[in-house]
Amino acid sequence: MDIDIAMKNPAGTFATPEALSKSSELTTEQKRAILLQWKDQLQQLQAADDEGIQQNDAAASTTDDLLVRVTSVLSRIDAGLKRVSNSG
Q1: Cα-flanking dihedrals φ and ψ of residue 21, to 5°?
Q2: What is the largest CA-CA distance in the chain?
């Protein structure tokens, strides 16, 4: 897997945030970095929607749902990293 491509286009590389989290090809830190990028891209889409650039309600709903899922997976990864750092 090309990490640079995954960073530039997480949604094109992974079908879902959950698929990314289950990938055995990436380290936890790489997964976290890609999820942060994905989250940022989704937040930019939301901002564009808020400004009236994007008019499709279905697309906005999908973006909102995906952002919740990305944030959830990111939170689980962060919690796992915190447990590891606290046990060491």
Answers
A1: -65, -25
A2: 49
